[in-house]
Automatic annotation (TrEMBL):
Its EC number is 1.5.3.1, 1.5.3.7. Residues 67-421 form the FAD dependent oxidoreductase domain. GO terms for biological process: L-lysine catabolic process to acetyl-CoA via L-pipecolate. It comes from the Eukaryota. It comes from Paramormyrops kingsleyae. Belongs to the MSOX/MTOX family. This is Peroxisomal sarcosine oxidase. Pfam families: DAO (PF01266).
Amino acid sequence: MHCGLFFFLRRHYPGRRGRGHSGLHKCNSRTSARALRRHRKSRKEGRVNLPALRNLGAEEMSSQKYDCIVIGAGIQGSYTAYHLAKNNRKTLLIEQFALPHARGSSHGQTRIIRKAYEEDFYFHMMEESYLLWSHMEAESGVQLYRQTGLLVTGPEKSRDFQGMKEALELNRVPSVVLAPEEFPQHIPHFKLGDGHGAVVDTTAGVLYADRALKAVQGAFQKLGGVIKDGEKVSGITPGSEVTVTTASGAHKAASLVITAGPWANAVLSHVGLQLPLQVQKINVCYWREKVPGTYSVSRRFPCFIQLPSEMEKTDIYGLPSNEYPGLMKVCYHAGSETDPDQRDKQTDRGDVAILSSYISRHLPGLESVPAVVESCMYTVTPDHHFVLDRHPMHSNIIIGAGFSGHGFKFGPVVGKVLCELSLGRPPSHDLSPFKLQRFQNFLKSTL
Ligand SMILES: Cc1cc2nc3c(=O)[nH]c(=O)nc-3n(C[C@H](O)[C@H](O)[C@H](O)COP(=O)(O)OP(=O)(O)OC[C@H]3O[C@@H](n4cnc5c(N)ncnc54)[C@H](O)[C@@H]3O)c2cc1C
C-alpha cells in the first residue's frame, strides 16, 4: 500500500520555531558558549564530555553559507547541483552515504534511455535530455551512452501498444514497425507473443549509469561545487535562510532542493510534508546466455520493453548483455514494498518466478534461472509521474521525488528544471503533470 495515499501538511509541524528539532537549533549563543567552555575544561582534565560536545551548536561547527543546498547525491540531486554550479551558484551537495554507494536508486552499470513515451511531456523532456547527456559526454570526455535501439512489444491491439506506436509516429521519432514474418531476421532469438506487435525506437540505447553519476559529480566539483558525503541530514529549519543539520554541523543556504530518492518522505518529514510514495525493492536479475554473445550489445541486440499482456500484468524490460559478459539483464518493472533502511529484509521473489516463465517462452537463448540478482529501489507515485515542485509553504524549498522507476534518463533535464525552480526562473518545461497538488485531488476522489 502507498503510505496513507495522501500528502499532508502537518498543521502543527515544528517549522520555523524549531520545535521537535534536534537540540542544535535550540542552542542560543549563550548556551553554546557555556557548552564550549565546559568542553574545553573537560579536555584539559582529560575527560570527554559527549553531551557538551553535542551542545557545541551548529554555529561553532560550520559557518559556511551557500546559495543552495541539495540533499541526496543520486542522479537527480547530482544533476541539480551541477546546473546550479553552472549558473554560478555556490552549491553544497549532501549525501548520507560515502560515495559511491549501492543503497539508493542510481547505482548499477546500465539504464535504458528512450524517446518512446506515450505522454508528450516526457517526449519533449527527453529531446532535451539527449542533448544534455551528449554535452556531459563532451564535458567529461567519458562515453555515457550507447545506441542499441529499443524493441517495444505487446498485444497488437492493446491501448498501450497502439499508444506507444502512435506517439513514435506523431513525434517523428526514427522508428521501424516489424511485421511478425520479418521479425526473426531483424531480431533473432526473441519469440514474439501470439498477436503481439513490434516497433523499434532506433534512437534508444543504454546509459552507463555508474559512469554517468561519477561524471556529473566530477563536473559539479570542477565548477567549484562542494560534496559532503557520509553526512546524513537530520534536521531542516525553513525560513528565508534554510538551515540543514547533519551530525557534523549546520549548513545554511538561501534555497534548498530535496532529492532524497527512497528516503524522500523521511527528509520531507522535517518540513511537514508526506507524499503518497511507495518504495519498492527491485530484484535486478541477470540471466546467462546458453551461447555466449547471443544477446550481446556488440551483436546489436536491442533493449526491449514487453508491455503488459494476459500473461504478464506489468512491463518486463531487458538490456543486451554488456556489463557482465555472457549475462543479460531482464527485470520486472515492479517490486515489493520496503523500508529503504531495511531493503534486504524484503526477500519476496515472486517477480523472479514470473521472469523465469517469460524467459522460457520468449528468450530461448537464456537459461531460465537467474545467474546474478542485485538490489535496487523504485520510489513510486500513484500515477507513476514524478514530483517536481515547490514546497507549498516554503517557496525556497524545491522537491524532486517519485521517479517511479523511470527517472534516470531524465536526470539532466530534471536537474535543469529543479535548478530553475530554485533560482525563481520559469521552468523550461511544462511542470503541470508533476505538481504536488494532484495528490490532493487523488485523495478526494478516493474518499
Ligand atoms: C533496477 C532499476 C532499474 C531502472 N531502470 C531504469 C531505466 O532503464 N531507465 C531510467 O530512466 N530509469 C531507470 N530506473 C530509475 C532510476 O534509476 C531512478 O529513477 C533514479 O536513479 C532516481 O534517482 P534519485 O536521485 O531520485 O534517487 P537516488 O539515486 O536514490 O538518490 C537519492 C540520494 O539521497 C540520499 N539521501 C537520502 N536521504 C538522505 C539524508 N537524510 N541525508 C543525505 N542524503 C540522503 C540517498 O542516500 C541517495 O544517494 C531504474 C531503477 C532501478 C532501481
